[in-house]
Each structure stands twice: as C-alpha cells, then as structure tokens.
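User: I've been going back and forth on whether these two constructs are worth ordering. Before I decide, could you fold them both?

Assistant: Sure. I'll take them in the order you sent them. The first construct and its structure tokens:
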Amino acid sequence: MRVRSARSYYQLPAFAQNDQPREVTLQVAARRLNVSQSIVRRMIEDKILPANQVVVCAPWQIPVEALDSEAIRKEATNIKNRARVPQSQSVEGQQSMFSER
C-alpha cells in the first residue's frame, strides 16, 4: 500500500515486467554472444565492450544495444576462435611428451 501511495504521490509509472531490459548481467551477455563469461570479462577489461558497475564488486551492467552491435559480435567470435587454436610449438629434434596414438 505504501509503494502504491508513493507511486501515486510522485506520479511514477508502475513497473512493467514486459519491458525489455536496457542492461544485462555478465552471464546474460555471455549467453547472448555465445561465448564464455571470461571472454565477456576480457572484452570489458580491454574496453571493447562497454559496461559499468555501481560499486566495486557489484555485478556488471552491460548495455543491450552494445551486444546487438555487429562489431561486438565479430570481436567475441574472434576471441572465441583464438582461444580454440592450440598454442603448441614444435622444436626440431624435441621428443613429444605424449604418445602418438
């Protein structure tokens, strides 16, 4: 009753659950980009993906419009594909630690 009264007094609209969110969490962003959360975190740290936190250690708030950007989607895919490429190097004459079955 108090919330209703305050909303009425300050002429605030009621919460509309069907409204699309303008910001999403790190987990939702990773799902939408089809990458891991660590890739999204790396994109935030590298200033590729805009995001903010209300306070330190608070959940990341990532704008939905950034996730819909083609440039962000391409970068996420590129990082994902780079992570899949094995980084092994063979040196001439070096024996493998693993059998070649």
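The second construct, handled the same way:
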Amino acid sequence: MGIIGSLQWIVYLLLSLVVFATQLFALVDAIRRPAGAFTAEGKLTKPIWLAILGVAAALGFLSLPLGGGVNLGFIGLIAVVASIVYLVDVRPRLQPYGNGRGRGSGGGGRPGGW
C-alpha cells in the first residue's frame, strides 16, 4: 500500500469513527429521554427509536475498518440516515422535556442545548 492508499485508509477510518460516534451519541441521547416525550411530540415510541438507533449503532460498529470491517454499502447509509433523522428532527423536539432525570422542562440545562 502506497502513501496515497495509506492516506485514503486513514481518512476512511476517521470518517467511519465519526459516523459511529454520531450513531452512539444518538442512541445514548434517546436512552436518556423520557418515554412520554416521544409520543407527546407525535414521534415514534421510545422503544421503536431505541431499536432503530441500536441497529444503526451495531451496523456502524460492524462497518469500522478495524480488523476486517464489513462494507455495508446501502444498509450502512440507511443506518447513518436514521441517526441523523433522530438528531435533527426528534432530538430538538424532545429537549424541552429534559433528559429523563427528573428535571421536568429543560430550563435548567446548559445553554445552547449541548
């Protein structure tokens, strides 16, 4: 493998790690949200989102190029899209409900929503 091939592998590894971290972040965030918030906002139920994001994270892990990762192609793309949909559509709607630790509305959180 030449220098270009090594550079391509490093870029692919970094992108794969970013995608997997995003999928894990979405899954952990969904776990922390109260179940009633999902249905109150007209979204799929919490167990359904946990299943979707859990499968997405598992596929993201399987596609990591560490020790023979699997190229999942279109299925991997669907897994990434599922996590992004949660993060840009569902998560913002759930934030006013807090993180499920008894905080009620999200008034006591950090500024900026992160």
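Notes on the second construct follow. Residues 3-98 form one domain. The chain has one domain: 3-98.
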